[in-house]
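Input structure tokens:
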């Protein structure tokens, strides 16, 4: 479903995340692997969290959000969100 998202909890606050990554993993059997890109004086960095099982799209989307928040906490300076993510930020 194009543009589909789910209510999740990120850092203790209600938010909405797209379901596409979990839906694609569920449909194809692909690994759902949370990833963070960053910068270092020598160039790009990349960090991975543990693969997320996809028992269903809702649980996997919440687990992906949890993992991404942990990755961002490790290096928050490079994190950018181009649209409102938390419910409180939406008008």
């Amino acid at each position: 479903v194009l543009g589909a998202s789910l209510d999740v909890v990120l850092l203790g606050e209600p938010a909405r995340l797209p379901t596409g990554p979990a839906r694609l993993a569920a449909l194809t059997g692909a690994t759902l692997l949370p990833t963070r890109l960053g910068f270092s004086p020598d160039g790009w960095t990349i960090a991975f969290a543990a693969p997320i099982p996809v028992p269903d799209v809702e649980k996997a989307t919440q687990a992906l959000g949890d993992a991404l928040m942990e990755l961002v906490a490790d290096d928050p300076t490079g994190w950018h969100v181009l649209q409102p993510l938390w419910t409180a930020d939406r008008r």
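Strands lie at 5-10, 13-18, 35-40, 43-48. The two ends are 23 Å apart (CA to CA).
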